[in-house]
Amino acid sequence: MSDESDTSVSITLGEALEEYLGTLAPEAHNNASPFVRRYVEHAGRDTVVASLTGARVESYAEGAIQLSDPAAPQRVAALKAWFQYLKKRSYVPKNYGVHIRLRRSAGRATAAHTVNEARIQMTAEGISNLQGELDKLEGEVPDLVKAISLAREDKDFRENAPLEAAREALAFNETRRREINATLRRAVAVDESGGADDRSAIGSIVQVTRLDNDRDMEYKLVSAREANASDRKISVESPVGKELLGRLPGDEVTVSVPSGVVQFRVTGVNKS
Prior knowledge:
The chain is an alpha/beta fold and about 270 residues long. It folds into three domains: about 5-100, DNA polymerase, domain 1 (Orthogonal Bundle); about 115-190, Helix Hairpins (Orthogonal Bundle), CATH 1.10.287.180; about 205-270, Roll (Chitinase A, domain 3), CATH 3.10.50. The protein contains nine helices and seven strands; from the N terminus they run ααααααβααββββαββ. A five-stranded mixed sheet has the order 5-4-3-7-6. A two-stranded parallel sheet has the order 1-2. Helix 7 runs antiparallel to helix 8 (about 160-185). It is elongated. The protein starts with a helix and ends with a strand.
């Protein structure tokens, strides 16, 4: 006799769809049904829900949801609610609705939008690191494509774990390359000198003493996209980074953090 956990592992998209639609009020059912059914037909009614992945959902969204579609907002809302339901029912480990969003179509509209996009301030090191990561990802593409080709030689696609893994790896690579390219298009290297005085700026290394325990530490102030706690690189948008930006040696700052209130004294500012 199967229990609820067995059902959650084996339930198909078709079964989950009928269950989901049965929970909706008539008006919501009429609004959501066409969009969710189209997704289920695309993915396959007999597909086990637990086999879905973020990459597969994102791939569908890229092709099916465009800004030029008048029904795009309704489609996004319907699919987000659908994936939230699957997560709530524990049919999937994550809410794949995060991959459902409006995407601008290529062409003049995109070019015009790019001109008006806000610039992203980053350190020269951060821009260089992103470019290096992009070069590495682009260099991996031929091997990933080859891996998919080799895995396809196994004709039993239903149980072809290497093929699924190779597709996932390529999808991740493509997604990350898009993210980096979007950032680099808008990136502007900041003036890390921060002006004529000794005030901290993006790119500065700030030495501080925590006043409640006399512990000394240092942080490098960077943009949100460069933040890395393990390297002591903190975003100027974070609570600590925001308070340390524009400070001089000798300044004392008070920071509200989840654990309470912490006071620091700035003991040094090193600029590039």
